From TrEMBL:
Keywords: Glycerol metabolism, Hydrolase, Signal
Residue span, GP-PDE domain: 46-130
Taxonomic lineage: Eukaryota, Viridiplantae, Streptophyta, Embryophyta, Tracheophyta
Protein name: glycerophosphodiester phosphodiesterase
Native organism: Triticum turgidum subsp. durum
Enzyme Commission identifier(s): 3.1.4.46
């Protein structure tokens, strides 16, 4: 119940902030400011978007990769979000785990190997969630 209340408050704050107008005087008088043009966040240089964090030297989609991207001056961090089988949201790019973990060598997970059709192709492996 507390988490629902907190979520409701957060949504209301975001709606209030997102719904605010750059010209409050026009809003008070019921006018629409048609001459107001939205400006991009910045125009002096291209955006630096960190794809899955700072990949290459640090495993992608990890907190360390995100922190490194911030240290390197990233304007935005692009990530992939998947839901695990138990409903937790995780930042992970691949549909299966064997390319980025040692799951194939872990006998306790042998029974979780599955075959699913993914985008028209049968794939066998340890899936993040389906």
């Amino acid at each position: 119940m507390d988490s629902l209340w907190h979520a409701s408050v957060i949504v209301l704050v975001l709606v209030f902030i997102g719904g605010s107008d750059a010209n409050p005087a026009a809003r008070r008088h019921g006018q629409l400011d048609v001459n107001h043009k939205k400006q991009p966040l910045q125009t002096s240089r291209p955006y630096n978007i960190a794809h899955r964090g700072s990949n290459g030297e640090i495993p992608e989609e990890t907190a360390a990769a995100y922190l490194r991207a911030i240290e390197e001056g990233a304007d935005f961090i692009e990530t992939d979000i998947l839901a695990s089988e138990d409903g937790h949201l995780i930042c992970f790019h691949d549909v299966t785990l064997e390319n980025t973990t040692d799951i194939a060598s872990r006998t306790e997970f042998a029974g979780r190997k599955r075959t699913y059709e993914v985008q028209g192709v049968n794939m066998t492996g340890w899936f993040t969630g389906m």
